């Protein structure tokens, strides 16, 4: 029997997480995408702490264009917050989603904001 879309994504996510993990020196930028919103957080997996988080539900970002444009704003926002927290280099975890559309837009926004990955 064929996998559902979500089962397939979770399989890919687990395969990515075997390789990508966040440390204090290079935390992980984890992305979650729902049908309406997009969420990003920078995580230190060694200590089990979320250092910075941003989403399309934040008051300064909400409803400012289409979903791809909003994802770019979330990327810039997370980059700005990360630089304030002293994080400049990250490992990008696309969460099992294809590097396309909103995920790509968020990553490019984070790069424009000053994060290196």
From TrEMBL:
Subunit description: Part of the 50S ribosomal subunit; part of the 5S rRNA/L5/L18/L25 subcomplex. Contacts the 5S and 23S rRNAs.
Pfam families in UniProt: Ribosomal_L18p
Functional summary from the UniProt entry: This is one of the proteins that bind and probably mediate the attachment of the 5S RNA into the large ribosomal subunit, where it forms part of the central protuberance.
Annotated keywords: Ribonucleoprotein, Ribosomal protein, RNA-binding, rRNA-binding
Family of the protein in this entry: Belongs to the universal ribosomal protein uL18 family.
Residues making up the signal peptide according to the UniProt record: none
Entry GO CC: cytosolic large ribosomal subunit
PANTHER family with a match to the protein in the record: 39S RIBOSOMAL PROTEIN L18, MITOCHONDRIAL, LARGE RIBOSOMAL SUBUNIT PROTEIN UL18M
GO biological process, one term: translation
HAMAP family (alphabetical): Ribosomal_uL18_B
Upper taxonomic lineage: Bacteria, Pseudomonadati, Bacteroidota, Flavobacteriia, Flavobacteriales
The keyword Ribosomal protein is assigned to this record: yes
Protein name, per record: Large ribosomal subunit protein uL18
A GO MF term: structural constituent of ribosome
Organism: Olleya namhaensis
């Amino acid at each position: 029997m064929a996998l559902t879309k979500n089962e397939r994504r979770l399989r890919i996510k687990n395969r990515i997480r075997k390789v990508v993990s966040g440390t204090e020196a290079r935390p992980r930028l984890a992305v979650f995408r729902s049908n309406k919103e997009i969420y990003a957080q920078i995580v230190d997996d060694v200590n089990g702490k979320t250092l910075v988080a941003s989403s399309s539900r934040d008051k300064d970002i909400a409803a400012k264009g289409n979903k791809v444009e909003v994802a770019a704003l979330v990327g810039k926002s997370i980059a700005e917050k990360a630089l304030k927290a002293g994080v400049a280099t990250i490992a990008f975890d696309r969460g099992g989603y294809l590097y396309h559309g909103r995920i790509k837009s968020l990553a490019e926004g984070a790069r424009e904001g000053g994060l290196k990955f």
